[in-house]
């Protein structure tokens, strides 16, 4: 039996309180359920991966791992990441492609990539491609929908003062005029060189998205994120043809095939693939390289502690989103210099887990 054979798989669920109140046009970020998977091989090497939900469903992901996937991993070679991923997918055909299955696969797949990098003694960003040694960062934490205009101006100005390269503002107020007024106030405060992005969190109809996009064009908005439900590929394609503002999609897409539909239709100007929601690093890289083939950039959603490495790994990497996720259960911090994130050089995912904090916050 090779020393790289999987001997044991441990699964845990941890509840993390958001660092600030987070609201958008569709929901409030109640809590972050973090699913942790640790894979141990015969030689004693241990790799840890994770995925997450933003309120509910964590226990269901954990049950899928515990009751159906974990036992099947024992005896497989941890080096065969593509094969392991494909076999996990095949074993869950009745629930794939879907949210819970993708989140479960991602927790395992990121653990296997952690093992691969640890075994090679290399950081993730280099082993997965090594395209960039740093990328610009934009802020999301200061742009939530519940905040009044003066708070938005203050928060975005503070992000600019810290050297970050842009900021994202949530939209979805009752009228287009109210959204436009808030954005105009921020643009006036930060000037023309600072990038501003907007995010509707799937809240608009196709017609309303076209209408609101026209109000963003004079403000030179960097992208219009999730304007409509992710299932509406045709609507996003119509919007992309109707506006000069790039359309950004991806956080609510759970398979590489869904991204392929968007790219073929010309419906995605920016790809925001999320490693947890798409099923792991293995499919994430496929999406990122497909985007590159269509001359589309990648600015991944959330998971900054992991996406800092992945965005730097691929040629299409554009931005890393600054929205802290794992501070309560880790001892490592991302390095940001002159508004750019420097991916971790430590072998593995570059995340140092705080086992004492995990034990304290563990709920299952």
Automatic annotation (TrEMBL):
Transmembrane segments: none annotated. Gene3D superfamilies: Enolase-like C-terminal domain (3.20.20.120), Enolase-like, N-terminal domain (3.30.390.10). It comes from the Bacteria. Its cofactor is Mg(2+). Residues 149-246 form the Mandelate racemase/muconate lactonizing enzyme C-terminal domain. Coiled coil: none annotated. Pfam families: MR_MLE_C, MR_MLE_N. Keywords: Magnesium, Metal-binding. PANTHER family: ENOLASE SUPERFAMILY, MANDELATE RACEMASE (PTHR13794), MITOCHONDRIAL ENOLASE SUPERFAMILY MEMBER 1 (PTHR13794:SF58). This is Mandelate racemase/muconate lactonizing enzyme family protein. It comes from Streptomyces tremellae. The lineage of its organism: Bacteria, Bacillati, Actinomycetota, Actinomycetes, Kitasatosporales.
């Amino acid at each position: 039996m090779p020393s790289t054979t999987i001997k044991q798989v441990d699964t845990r669920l941890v509840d993390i309180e958001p660092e600030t109140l987070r609201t958008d046009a569709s929901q409030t970020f109640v809590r972050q359920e973090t699913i942790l998977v640790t894979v141990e091989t015969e030689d004693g090497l241990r790799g840890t991966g994770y995925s997450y939900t933003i309120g509910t469903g964590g226990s269901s992901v954990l049950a899928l791992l515990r009751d159906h996937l974990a036992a099947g991993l024992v005896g497989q070679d941890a080096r065969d990441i593509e094969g392991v991923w494909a076999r996990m997918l095949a074993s869950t055909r009745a629930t794939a492609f879907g949210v819970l299955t993708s989140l479960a696969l991602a927790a395992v797949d990121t653990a296997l990539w952690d093992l691969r990098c640890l075994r090679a003694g290399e950081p993730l960003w280099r082993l997965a491609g090594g395209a960039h040694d740093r990328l610009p960062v934009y802020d999301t934490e200061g742009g939530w929908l519940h905040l009044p205009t003066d708070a938005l101006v203050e928060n975005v100005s503070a992000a600019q003062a810290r050297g970050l390269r842009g900021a994202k503002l949530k939209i979805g107020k009752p009228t287009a005029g109210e959204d436009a007024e808030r954005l105009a106030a921020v643009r006036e405060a930060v000037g023309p060189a600072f990038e501003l992005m907007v995010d509707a969190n799937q809240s608009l109809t196709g017609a309303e998205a076209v209408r609101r996009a026209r109000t963003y064009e004079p403000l030179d908005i960097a992208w219009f994120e999730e304007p409509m439900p992710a299932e509406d590929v045709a609507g996003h394609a119509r919007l992309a043809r109707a506006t000069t503002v790039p359309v950004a999609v991806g956080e609510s897409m759970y398979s590489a095939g869904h991204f392929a539909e968007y790219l073929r239709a010309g419906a995605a100007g920016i790809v925001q693939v999320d490693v947890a929601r798409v099923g792991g690093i293995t499919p994430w890289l496929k999406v990122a390289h497909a985007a590159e083939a269509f001359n589309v950039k990648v600015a991944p959603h959330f998971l900054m502690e992991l996406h800092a490495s992945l965005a730097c790994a691929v040629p299409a990497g554009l931005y890393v989103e600054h929205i802290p996720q794992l501070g309560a259960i880790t001892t490592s911090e991302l390095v940001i210099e002159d508004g750019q994130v420097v991916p971790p050089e430590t072998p593995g995912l570059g995340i140092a887990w705080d086992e004492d904090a995990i034990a304290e916050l563990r709920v299952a």
